[in-house]
Amino acid sequence: MEPIFARDENTAVVATEAGKVRGYRHKGISVFKGIRYARARRFHAPEPIEPWKGVWDASNYGFVCPYVDKKPWLSQELYLPHRYWITDEDCQNLNIWTPACDGERRPVLVWLHGGGFNMGSAIEMAAYDGENMCRFGQVVVVSVNHRLNLLGYFDLSDFGEEYANSANAGTDDLIAALRWVRDNIEGFGGDPGNVTLFGQSGGGAKITALLQSPGADGLFAKGINMSGVLQDGVVGACARSGKKLAEAMMKELGISTVQELETVPYEALAAAFRRVRSDLAAKGEYLGNEPRPNAFYAGDPLAAGFRGESIRVPLMVGTTYGEFSAFLPLAFDKRTASAREGRQAVRRILGEERAAELLPVFEGAYPRRNPGDVLYLDTLFREPAMRYVRKRAGQGGKVYSYLFDQDMPIDGGRVPWHCADIPFVFHNTEHVPGVQQAGMTERLEQELFESVLAFARKGDPGHGGIPPWPAVTPSEEHTMVFGSPTELKCNHDTELIPLAQRHLAGVHEKLRSLPH
């Protein structure tokens, strides 16, 4: 019988191109943490790591990228249990969970964390842990840390060829990580020819950035973009160079060259940025902290179109019903409110005219919901996601749409929030108290988890536990709505979302003014 835990010279040892690494074996899973995949000077492209002698200790997580703003998430832990770790610029590392290091060539799923391009880490949330996905799915799971904010996305191209792609250095890190996976993952029991990227929020946006980056071509086969499509002008919006930002920061720091910016302590660099950003933002200047279109990155596909070279990559794209709206104060008590009382709450918040136009359309799209739930309907992510999937389908891409639409028991019934689907995707609902509900949690976890596995295995998320799931066409968005029950809908909110965008304008401020 295999021991519960093992770590010795013969257990979980793999020879990579740079040298041997040793992790540990726990409950039938081999775990490797903090493996270096690249190194880099500040603002420069990543470089291969130097080979080492002996055995690399891969039993500890690696450094995570420091934040510009030191504001860790210290609330809403019932929704999103967090974990914080030691920060350092030397953060190009990855973690691996595998059933066995046996050359079996299993599907590989590479997790790209959220937090925009500005913050977050591969271990930031308890639900990011890859052990359950690995065990229940018999797949290899990889999670990646990379440079963020000014370290990963600061355009200095006006200051010399060596900074040609400093605006996308963080994406270059991800490309380096994917090259490492291609070259080494077979030793960990993974198939380098079947790599699926999956990521939520900023992690989903990173998948789009990689699709739009020629350097990533051929490094992944599929992508799952979870709440990672934002409205035009949010990601990579400023085409201006970073020259004025760099000059303003150098003036604040009392230095005169970009080379000196490379060696300023990170805290001083971040503090200088915080002091100058407001004035620059008021003038519409470049502020970094996100990808910038150039020869290495084709830009937001909603504006520029998808690169033809990426169209062969199947995608699964989804959002949650409430996203950030779900965190707002409640306008009515869903445990006791009737449909009539829900409509009254909408009229009170929106006014009679807007409510009269919006409610019938909402109730047609969501007949199972209390009409008052329209106040918490997300349009920020859902509207651009609708255009994203249709645009990709129109260019010949294979793309599947989903919506996570399961209410949770917090406060008597919260609509699903931004990140609510993550623990279900990872088979990690056991780590998140706020999603526990008898008769729902295990069923929905299995449905969504099996869709992710099916997609990773064959590029199609359909399986026997859910209704048939066709791909999106330019005229028909077939959306798998994961909820109670899980059902397929076609164009169910095509009329609703544009209407809601207009009529829900300002509703967040009104809801925030309600007593908590």
Can you walk me through this structure?
By secondary structure, the chain is of the alpha/beta class. The protein has 2 domains: 5-233 and 295-313, Alpha/Beta hydrolase fold, catalytic domain (Rossmann fold), CATH 3.40.50.1820; 319-512, 3-Layer(aba) Sandwich (Rossmann fold). The protein is 29% helix and 15% strand. The strands form 2 sheets. Strands 1-4-5-7-9-8-10-11-12-13-14-15 form a 12-stranded mixed sheet, with helices on both faces. Helix 5 (243-253) crosses helix 7 (266-282), helix 9 (339-350) crosses helix 10 and helix 10 (352-365) packs antiparallel against helix 14 (496-503). It starts with a strand and ends with a helix.
Helices, strands, pairings?
Layout: E1 5-6, E2 13-15, E3 20-22, E4 24-26, E5 29-36, E6 55-57, E7 93-98, E8 106-112, H1 131-137, E9 140-144, H2 149-152, H3 169-184, E10 190-200, H4 202-211, E11 222-226, H5 243-253, H6 258-261, H7 266-282, H8 301-304, E12 315-320, H9 339-350, H10 352-365, H11 382-394, E13 399-404, H12 422-425, H13 441-458, E14 478-482, E15 487-490, H14 496-503, H15 507-512
Parallel strand pairs: 3-6, 8-9, 8-10, 10-11, 11-12, 12-13, 13-14
Antiparallel strand pairs: 1-4, 2-3, 4-5, 5-7, 7-9, 14-15
